[in-house]
Amino acid sequence: MLKKIATAAGVLLLSALAACGGQAPAGSGTGALTLGFAQVGAESGWRTANTKSIQEAAQAAGVVLKFSDAQQKQENQIKAIRSYIQQKVDVIAFSPVVETGWDTVLLEAKRAGIPVILTDRAVDSEDTSLYRTFLGSDFVEEGRKAGAWLVANSTGPVSVVELQGTTGAAPAIDRKKGFEEKIAARPDIKVVASQTGDFTRSGGKQVMEAMLKSTPDIDVVYAHNDDMGLGAIEAVKAAGKVPGRDIRVITVDGVRDGMQALANGEIDFIVECNPLLGKQLMDLAKKVKAGESVPQRVVTEETTFTREQAKAALPSRQY
Ligand code: AHR
């Protein structure tokens, strides 16, 4: 009788493992870490590369990943986080679609004893005990790099249009701030129009089409990501102008399509934002679960690309 019960229990455990793609489920007693990850969406090439990096790194690290796509809506991310709390995952990680409005749900996670890791984007919360660490880029610095390049590579009056990322998102706020900080040294560089394109290619195209009609003599487009820059390039071409010659284009990210456009001469300069955060996230999640201390901030290493540098980097670019 005892032998039969033991066999049945073994069969149940094996089916549970199979249902989780071969990785041990939470609470199975095998020690596998369960990570609930609430992603922003799939708005850009950067985001697709980021999601892939997280999924592949979880697989490689033997982490059971529960993944949700919020389709760029804060309420969806909050719902996903609440569901991870209910499921009693070991660690929650998320990339907040906007900076504000997280305190309540983060407090719920804290009360449930589930540590939270911010990935890619920060929250604007005074209570830093609501999360254990923040892994991601320095977006203000990215904006500074874009502004510094324009200051060094332009003369005379320069009329800039800015395509902002999602309103209220950390990279949109910070990339604007860093850029403005640097161009302040050159009062003849003026941002004559600035609007959100929501980090999407279609958003960038639509906003640029309107700007080309309403704003005469645009010299430069500063797009907060490659996708919006690529959308703007389509609008510039449709208006009979040559991107990279009639209108210069500066973007942030460095995804393959952006790098290709830079190599082709349609983009002038790209500030890199690295989406390959998966491995670092898994390492941090394991440390947090083990009760080890982790730094409050982990900044991603990044570079910039000129045309020649893009040509050299393209053959080995992973995303
Ligand atoms: O938070 C990172 C930003 O979000 C990337 O620059 C952009 O492409 C993405 O949508």
TrEMBL record:
* Record flagged with keyword Signal: yes
Cellular location(s)? Cell envelope
- Reply yes or no: does the keyword Signal apply: yes
Which part of the chain is the Periplasmic binding protein domain?
41-292
Would you tell me the Gene Ontology cellular component terms?
Answer: cell envelope
What are the UniProt keywords, alphabetically?
A: Signal
Mention one GO molecular function: carbohydrate binding
What family name appears in the similarity comment?
Answer: Belongs to the bacterial solute-binding protein 2 family.
| Annotated protein name in UniProt | Monosaccharide ABC transporter substrate-binding protein, CUT2 family
State the organism of origin.
Allokutzneria albata
> Taxonomic lineage per UniProt?
Bacteria, Bacillati, Actinomycetota, Actinomycetes, Pseudonocardiales
